[in-house]
Amino acid sequence: MFIVPKNSGLNKCKEIAKKFYNSKILEVRGEDVPLVVSKMIKNSKTIGITGEDLFKEFLLENRENDLEILEREKWEDSYTLFGKPTLCLLGPKDKNLDQLKGKIRVCINSKYKRISKNYLNNLESKGYNFEKIYVSGSSEEMFSVNITDLIIDIVYSGYSAKKFNLEVYDKIFGSDIVVIGEKQKDLVKNLKWEKMGGIIPTIVKDFQGNILTLAYSNKESLSKTIKENIPYYFSRKREKIVYKGSTSGNTQELIKIRTDCDNDSILFIVKQKRNACHLNKYSCFDEEKKFDLNELYKKISDRIESNCKNSYTNKLVKNPRLLKRKIVEESAEVITENPKNKKRLIEEFADLFYNIFVYMALNNILIEDIEKENERRDGK
Predict the structure, then answer these.
(1) Average pLDDT, the chain
(2) pTM for this prediction
(3) What is the DSSP letter of 274?
């Protein structure tokens, strides 16, 4: 999944995504791209693309996160005043900051609240005094009606600043385009290869937690796995690197890589196509794939992404009022159903869970988010 901005000012991001990546594309607000990617990487391979300024703002708000910049694309637009969109401090033309006395009113685009706060804190340490005003847009209009003395906002061509008789006092942050995704640890370097003569046990399980098989990795196979995001293993019998399913067609889609506390074994979390065992069983350990609530949520998410016109799920997504009404109706049916009719009561609960999961997926809320909230409450 590739998360891209739907903001018109970030159309370059969509162009890059469509040109370089063969993935499903989901459009959200540019400032929400890092948040959505951070939520979705928990259950699937997800990357995003957005302005570097918006990612910087996310990092300041979410210091403990699993995201990093995977690639950087130069903005390169001749219409930009500074070669790229640049967060600037602007003030009245033919003046400077030292000429503004007393408590200085600063109108700040709320998308850059934390970047601006850090910048202004530095100025306040030099003796300046600021009153901060946050707006979602139209910051120049705030200056034109004398609500603010200064503005912190993105400068692109500079035409808007010129129109309102503003000039740039300082450049705060220049923004390129960044592709973001999960942090890549230097797994190959940190693992203890010497313990088993250059190979490491690799446990493979599906996203439901079923153990599929035990395989082995060497430095080359793990490097290929990380680089291509496809599970490769070292076959001790054939003494070569193999791609799982290359002959049988029972391939795996890599979801995550984890290491144990001693750095001498690896865990691959995968999505298994058909069977993982050479005896034509789903698991070498006789584990069975179950249709649990996580599987239901994933199928709902996949259906939403497919945008299938004949899908009832997408009918609900496109009509939020209908979806909310169905949740109310199904809740009422659960409450009014005769508890002695257990079979029917289970069916009503299943209907309710389905509609709730659709509403959760529509709002990018994962089952894991609910579990974490319950864990927090249990801790209290």
Answers:
(1) 88
(2) 0.55
(3) S
